[in-house]
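Entry for the shared binder. Reason: the reviewer on the internal report wants the predicted structure included alongside the sequence.
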Amino acid sequence: MENVRVSSYLNQVDIGDGTTLLYNGASLCIDLVPNEYAKRLAAGDDLSFLAPEEKEHLLKRGHLTVLTPNNELKEFRKTVNYILEQRNRLDQSAKTATLCLLLTYDCNLSCSYCFQKSLPDTAKKPVMDGEFIDRFFDQYFPQLYPTVPEELLITLFGGEPLLPKNREAITRILAYAEQHPSVRVSVTTNATTIPLMMDLIGAAKGKIGSVHVTLDGDRILHDENRIPNSGKPTFDAMIASIKQLIALDAHVSLRMHIHPDRLESAKNLVEYLETEKLLGHSQVSVYFSPINTFSSEQVSLADADLFGQTFQQVAKVTQCPPSNLLFIDNFLKMQDKKLLPKVRYCAAGSNHFFIVDPLGDLYACYEDAGHKARRIGTFEGGNVKFAALKEKYAGRHLLKIPECMRCSAALFCGGGCPSEAKLQKGSMFKAYCHQNKEFIAQTMKAFFLLAREAGASSK
C-alpha cells in the first residue's frame, strides 16, 4: 500500500500498563495498541512493522491516511463545517439557557490573581437591589429570551454574591424561581458568608440548590492566596461551609485551582478531601482549574507526572474526570455519534447565555464583566441594545482560527477562551491553548480506565 502515512490528527495517551490509546482528532476513533506500536507510529517514518491487516484497520479508523497533509486538512475542514451546521441548527432550537446575574463587583476577599482586580473601585459600589431585579424580569428578560426556555439556570455571581447586602436581590430572584418550575438557581461563592445565608440554600424549590466553591490548594497555599480584609485564614472556614452545604442538601461543585509550581499542594488537598469524605460524596463534584498555564511542555516531567497521578486519583474516587472546565461530557460517546464535538469553546455570543451586571450592562464572558469596552449590550430606556461585539463572539469558531484547523485536539477544545485570546494575543480569532491538551489527554485516559473497570466488574 503506497503513500500511507500517520494522520496529522493522531493523538496518543499512555495508559500506564504497557498500552497506549490512539485517538484521532478528525475521525474521533479510539483504539488501544501496545506502547511499542505507539512509539513507532509517533516516529512516523517507517510503517513496515505493521501487518497488512493492522495497516488496513488503522486506515479505516483514520489513524493512518493516504491523503497528503493539505488534502487531509481540506477533509477536516469539511468535517468541522458539517458539525458547525448541525450545532447551529441545534442552538436555534435550544430548550435550555443560562443567565448569570452579577449582583455586585464587591468582594470580602482580596485574592492576588483575581481577574477583577483591574476594575476601578467605582465599579464595586453599585449593587443589584430588589427594584432592579423586578424591573429586569418584567422588562428585559422577555427581550433576552423571547422564547421562554424549558430549563433556565440562574447563576448568582460577583464579586461575592452572598454578601449580606445582596440578600434583598437574592430573595427576589428566589421568589421568581419559586414561581417558575423551569428555573433553577446556583451561586459561585467563596463560601465565607454561608453561615449568614443558610436559610436561602437547599434542595427545595425557591432555594439556591447548587453552590460552586473554590479551594486554592492545601491549607497553606489556600490561606496564602484567598485572604479576607481581616487577614485571617479562610481554609477551615470554607471546609466547614462545604459541610454545612451538604447538610442543607445542596449540591457542591468544588473548583480546585492548580498552580503549576505548587502541584504538591493539589495532591495534598485531594488527600485531605478524601480523608474528610468530601471527595466522592454524592453531593460533591470536583473539577480542576489551572490558575496559570499548565502544560506538560512547560513544566518538569516530574510535575507533569504528579499532575496526571492527582487527576487520575480524583477520577477514580469520584468516577468522573475533574475536567469540567472543558465542558466535556464523555469522549467515548463521541464514537457512537451520541455527542457532537466542539467547534466553539463556550457559549459566548449565543442567545442562550448572558451575564447581567448591576449597571445594566451585558457581557458574554465572566472575565469581560465590568470592562465596559468589552460589553455585548446594555439596558437603555426599557430596551436591550446589543453591541457588535456580541455577533463577533458568536462568529468565533474553529473555521475562523487557522491554527486550530491543523490541531489534533481542536474538536475537543474548540479553540480555547476567546476573551483570553483577545487579551493575551490581540485577537479572539487566535487560539488560546492554555492547558487544554494535557487536560484532554488525562480526561481521555480517565474515561477509558473507568469504562474498563466498569466492564470488568460487570463480568
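Summary line for the report: Residues 69-92 form the longest helix (24 residues).
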